[in-house]
Design brief:
Length: 237
C-alpha cells in the first residue's frame, strides 16, 4: 500500500472541505485508488458528533460517494481489464499476490463480495473493478453495490458520530479498525457455515431424488397385443 497519510492532514482536509472531502474520499477509494477514504468518512462522522458537520449530510455524502465510486470502478474494470488494475495496484504499491488472492475469492462470491466487501480494505478498493472484469451483470452489481453502500455508510458514520463523542479520534479509528476485523471474521464464518450446510444438503437431495424415481415403464409401451396373448397361452398350459 502507499505510505500512510497522517491523521492530522486528513482531519485538516475534512474540516476545510467538509462534505466534499467525504464524498470524494470514499468515491476515489471505491473507484480503485488506494486512498484512506474510510478514514475520511470516519473523521466526517466524528466532526458531525462535534457539531462541525451535520450527521445527515455526512451520511448522504458517504452513501453517494460509495455508490458513485464503485460504479466508476465497475466500468473501469470492464473496459480496462485486469492489466489496468495491476498497473494501478503497482503504482500504489499493492502486492500483486494479495490482489490475485482477492480476485480468486471474488470470483466465487461476487454478490456477497460487493455487498460485504466494504468492510474489508482490499475488497472495498477493488470490488468494483473486479466486478467489471468478471463480467458480473450490471443490474445485479448495482443492486448489491447500493445496498452495501447504505449499510456500510450507516454503520460507519453512526459509529463515528456516537462513539466519537465519548472517545478521542485516534481511539475511534482503532475501534473502527477492530470492528472491521471482526466483521471480516463474521463474514468468513457465515460463508463457511453456508457452504457446510449446502454440502450436507446435496447428498440428502440426491437420496430423495433416487427414492422418487419409479421403475422404468418405457419397455411396457413396446409390448403389443400378440405378446400379451402369447403370455396368456403359456399361463393356461
Amino acid at each position: 500500500m502507499t505510505e500512510p497519510i497522517s491523521l492530522d492532514f486528513i482531519e485538516e482536509i475534512a474540516r476545510q472541505y467538509g462534505y466534499w472531502a467525504v464524498f470524494l474520499g470514499i468515491s476515489l477509494e471505491n473507484a480503485g485508488i488506494p486512498i484512506p477514504g474510510e478514514t475520511i468518512t470516519v473523521v466526517g462522522g466524528f466532526l458531525a458528533g462535534e457539531g462541525e458537520l451535520k450527521y445527515q449530510g455526512v451520511l448522504s455524502c458517504a452513501i453517494a460517494g460509495a455508490i458513485v465510486g464503485d460504479n466508476f470502478g465497475y466500468w473501469l474494470g470492464k473496459w480496462g481489464g485486469w492489466s489496468l488494475i495491476l498497473r494501478v495496484a503497482k503504482l500504489f504499491r499493492v502486492e500483486t499476490a494479495r490482489l490475485e488472492m482477492v480476485r480468486v475469492q471474488f470470483g466465487a462470491n461476487a454478490d456477497k463480495a460487493v455487498f460485504f466487501g466494504r468492510f474489508i480494505a482490499l475488497l472495498r478498493i477493488f470490488a468494483g473493478p473486479l466486478a467489471g472484469i468478471s463480467g458480473m451483470p450490471y443490474g445485479r452489481f448495482f443492486f448489491c453495490n447500493a445496498a452495501g453502500a447504505i449499510v456500510w455508510a450507516f454503520v460507519i458514520v453512526t459509529l463515528a458520530f456516537t462513539v466519537g463523542q465519548i472517545i478521542p479520534l485516534e481511539q475511534l479509528l482503532e475501534t473502527i479498525a477492530q470492528f472491521g476485523f471482526w466483521a471480516f471474521v463474521m463474514i468468513v464464518l457465515i460463508f463457511a457455515a453456508v457452504r457446510w450446510f449446502e454440502s450436507r444438503r446435496e447428498p440428502q437431495l440426491d437420496l430423495e431424488s433416487d427414492r422418487t424415481e419409479g421403475p422404468d415403464l418405457g419397455d411396457l409401451t413396446d409390448l403389443n397385443l400378440t405378446d400379451i396373448k402369447t403370455s396368456d397361452q403359456f399361463t393356461e398350459t
